[in-house]
Write a structure and sequence with these properties.
The structure is a single chain. By secondary structure, this protein is an alpha+beta fold. It folds into 2 domains: 38 residues; 139 residues, no CATH class. Helices cover 32% and strands 22% of the residues. It is built from 3 helices and 8 strands. The strands form 2 sheets. A 4-stranded mixed β-sheet has the order 1-2-8-5, with no helix packed on it. The radius of gyration is 24 Å and the shape is elongated. The termini are far apart.
Length: 182
Amino acid sequence: MPRAAALSFLLAFMFACAAQAQRDEAAEDEAAQQKIASRVITHGEVCPEPKSPCLDMDHFHDNELSFRLKSKFNFDRGRDRSLPFYALILKSGELCKMPDEERVAIQAQFPSRKVFLHRHFCNDFSDKATYTNVNRKAGFIAVYAGKTDAEAKQFLGEVKAAGKFPDANLRRMQVELIRQLE
């Protein structure tokens, strides 16, 4: 009987070691995944001309401000960001409730500046673009205001003088593509 008890103990010990090894491996995999997910690469400038979006349009919808990507996504990072720029927030509201038709109508008022709509993850995982320095739980319609603070303030003055968007406000931001790694 002592031999059977020893064998039973040895088997239990081996199973416990194997289970611990699996837990350790799973924890290592999770840590590696988190490291990749937290990696952010800053790429190039946004493409603010509505009729000339960046060529990498398979990553951007018409309602999003596109930017130049330096490298192809290869499951090596969780986020891609544009260089910083200024945007003029024209209108805000509930996320996923602002219609793209409104953005399109506003775009006609700004033919040389991209008007974009924040709809992050409103269409499942297809709309990956969001923006830094904003409330990501809110929707908004914005227009590209420029690279520099001076350029953006001048544009804000022009828009306010026209009187159509009296509550418009400037925001320095970056476009951010959030990648699904799983």
